[in-house]
Amino acid sequence: MKTIYRNAKVWRSGRFGEADVTVADGRIVAVGEAADGGAESIDLRGLCIVPGLVDVHVHLREPGFEYKETVATGTAAAAHGGYTTICSMPNLMPAPDTPEHLAVQLEAIRRDAAVRVIPYGCITMGQKGRGELVDFAALAPGVVGFSDDGRGVQSAELMEEAMRRAAAAGRPVVAHCEADDLLRGGYIHDGAYCHAHGHRGICSESEWTQVERDIELAGKTGCRYHVCHVSTRESVALVREAKARGLAVSCETAPHYLLLDETDLREDGRFKMNPPLRSAEDRAALIAGIQDGTIEVLATDHAPHTAAEKSRGLAGSAMGIVGLECAFGLMYEYLVLGGVIPFARLMELMSENPRRLFGLGGGRIEAGQPADFTVLDLGAEYDVDPGTFLSKGRATPFAGWRVRGRTVLTVVGGRWAYDGLNRKPNRQ
């Protein structure tokens, strides 16, 4: 059965143009004015079709921590936010450090995922950031890359060998950069708010010194290297320099690092994540990084916890916030409509670049492509309301923020993964 999505504004070749999009058997079969007959028809007048959003940094928590999130709830949240593909992080139980452990996660994905999910494999056994390396070649066929997200790889020698093995397996190293010996019990940025309120701080050096180390190792080994959730101006400068040298280095940041800094902190677990909200100068450097292309990916680092785990203030709450269901609206409102970047750059950051860098394919509204796309109402104005989230997690510092740009339909392989359209197809 064909479905024709009619009268939409379709994002192609860097601009919107009105067209019909015809889908059959999970693929786009035509873009342009569609003939009637033998198809279901959905009128999308006033709405926009864009390539499905991609998030390369999501914590689904299953297996092992289903009380925080499951594959079913996390991917429902992704679809609600307009994402058609996500990459799931390995801090699980069992951690995906062997093919047998990875198979547990893959089965949950096969059974319950509402969107496309490609997991990461661990770098170290047990995802400890030290000790024994995983069998990269054995894990490579089932993973998008290798990461110990949540922990930095502490030894330069171990990271160098990991990069050599990852490069041989044809997968990137995707690094959480954090030097344990510089943490000193900290849990928010080591800045003015920390000192004024008697907290323990995380210094910027704990991030950027490992970024600096790893960039040199990437150049030495030829490994594709991607830095998770950069938060400091030094990290941005290091990645910019590495790109100028022609190294295969990329990085991501998250919406909260672009819209918030330490001056926005409150004594509330909703403002606690790792890395922490940094200084206003760091935030300005991150914005410059997305403007000039140094930062190529926007990822949410969606990290759900229970309400109890996030109710213990800055000192006692678990690290992490949710982001899948509010990221697009926030970025469209405050970056695009705010005049920081054009809409085309937002599409690069949230769809095109992650597909290219991680070899995910798709991402174009063209005949022959997978029918993975998002339908947006760019004029819809609303408040971020965690009560409407499909994720089990509710902790976000953006609760109550006014945004524009709502996902009304998410299509994955031709299937409606999220339906907020409330329009029944007409048979023609």
Furnish the topology, listing elements before pairings.
Elements: E1 2-12, E2 15-24, E3 27-32, E4 39-43, E5 48-51, E6 53-58, H1 71-80, E7 83-88, H2 99-112, E8 116-119, H3 136-139, H4 156-169, E9 173-175, E10 188-189, H5 192-196, E11 201-202, H6 205-221, E12 225-227, H7 233-244, E13 249-253, H8 255-259, H9 280-292, E14 297-298, H10 313-316, H11 327-336, H12 343-357, E15 373-383, E16 402-412, E17 415-419, E18 426-427
Parallel strand pairs: 1-4, 1-5, 6-7, 7-8, 9-12, 10-11, 12-13, 13-14
Antiparallel strand pairs: 1-2, 2-3, 4-18, 5-15, 15-16, 16-17
Helix pairs in contact: 4-6, 6-7, 7-9
What would you call the quaternary organization? single chain
List segments where confidence is low: pLDDT < 50 over at least 5 consecutive residues. Answer: none
The total domain count is 2
Encode the helix/strand succession as letters: EEEEEEHEHEHHEEHEHEHEHHEHHHEEEE
- What is the radius of gyration? 21 Å
Largest sheet: 9 strands, mixed
Helical residue percent band: 25-40%
| CATH topology title of the largest domain | TIM Barrel
- Name the beta content range: 15-25%
Main structural class: alpha/beta
Mean pLDDT: 96
CATH secondary-structure class of the largest domain: Alpha Beta
Straight-line distance between termini: 11 Å
In the CATH classification, which architecture of the largest domain applies? Alpha-Beta Barrel
The name of the CATH superfamily of the largest domain reads Metal-dependent hydrolases
DSSP, total strands: 18
Shape: globular
SS field, number of helical segments = 12
